[in-house]
Every structure is written in structure tokens, then in C-alpha cells.
Known about the structure:
Layout: E1 10-13, E2 16-19, E3 25-29, H1 37-50, E4 54-58, H2 62-74, E5 79-83, H3 87-96, E6 100-103, H4 111-124, E7 128-133, H5 139-145, H6 150-166, E8 172-177, H7 181-194, E9 200-201, H8 209-225, E10 231-233, H9 240-246
Parallel strand pairs: 3-4, 3-10, 4-5, 5-6, 6-7, 7-8, 9-10
Antiparallel strand pairs: 1-2
Amino acid sequence: MPYTRRISRQVNVGGIPVGGGAPISVQTMTKTKTADVEATVAQIKRCQEAGADIVRVTVNDKYAAEAIREIVRRVDIPIVADIHFNHIYALAAIEAGVAKVRINPGNIGSLDRIKEVIEAAKKRRIPIRIGVNSGSLEKDLLEKHGYPTAEALFESAMRHAKYCTDLGFEDIVISVKSTNVRLMIEAYRYIAQETDYPLHLGVTEAGRETVGTIKSAVGIGTLLAEGIGDTIRVSLTAEPEKEVEVG
Length: 247
């Protein structure tokens, strides 16, 4: 059977095209305390040397939010701000010049807060990744489906994608991750069939190097073989440089 890649929209992440037939980019995520600028910058540079195209950094407290501007200034690779719980940190990261923001619909808060993030991203012309995770689905979806299902992950992603597009924001990347490889594959297939958004592939908390590599190879590899996926991140407990090598 000939290989056919899914046709998706394209977004620009700090000069790296994602989707729209662009080469599949490799991402990783720092494991330093973001407030430690020196350590974080050094790790980002090692990841870049290992072959990373994009690096994600957690912005999880006010100290990280204060540090992100200097981190962005000192590296020449696109930086994605990973946001949980507090949208104020997303606003600070966008103002600091990050190339993309990742939000988790299950813990970012009210739609009013999400609207602020969308408006800020629109002003700066940067994309947002709607990062759905089976371990933090919205309560109403868990009540509806009983437990995390591919349909529940899909509904969460589409709910927030629609909110973005209703506000005139189209630069969206979607991920629907799970520690369960089979569920992850099913959810991405669902998204791929129903939408043309670019997809970020990954298995949540894949685990130690050997197990994590196998789980990621099965999950990510299966989808890539089906032509699904525009950017990937292999999640390991090892250093992020190793994630890049495995990717």
C-alpha cells in the first residue's frame, strides 16, 4: 500500500512550519527549573545540538514567567511555553516572545481566561496547541463517557478549537495524549479523520528509556506509518537530549 500523508493546515512556530506537508519536526521539553536561566538555556542548546527543532519549557510559576523572556532572548530555537492552571503565565510568556503556547483544556480554567490567551496569541501571531490529556479531562466529559475514551478526547479538543475559531483564531495545533498507547492511537485517528488541524503526536509519560522508547515507537510510529502527524515529542524520564535522539 503506497504511503499517503494526511493533508493538514500549516502553522508557523518561530520559523518552523508545522503541517501542510512540511517535514515532521522533532520537539522535546526541558527538565530544569525554568527560573534557573543558566541551566535551562544550557539544556536547550544541548537539545538543539542533538537535533531538536522546537523546545518546550514549562512556565508554571511567577519565577518561570519572569525568566522566560531572558531564555527566549538567549537561544535561537523556537520556544514553546507549557501552561497549566494559570493563564496569567501564558500571557506573560506570549509577551516575552515565545513561539507557541500549549494549554491544557482540563486545567486552564474558564473560557474567559482562555479568551485572553487567544487574543494575546492572535496579536502576536503565534499558534496555540490545544493539548488534551486523558488524565485531566474536563469533568463533564468524564461524566458523559464514564472514563477517558477516544471520543471524549476528541470532544475536548473540538470544544476548544471551536472556541478559538469563533474568536477568529485559526493557528491551532492539537494533541490528544494518553499513557495508554491504544487509546492514544484511536484518539488521533479520530481527530485525523474529522479535522485538518496539524497534529502533535506523543505518548504521555511514556516512562523510562527502554519502556518509553517502545511505547513511543508503537504509538507514534503507528500513526506516522498511517500518514498521521506533523510534529512529535518522545516523552522519557531520561534527559531531553535522549528524547530527541529517539525521535
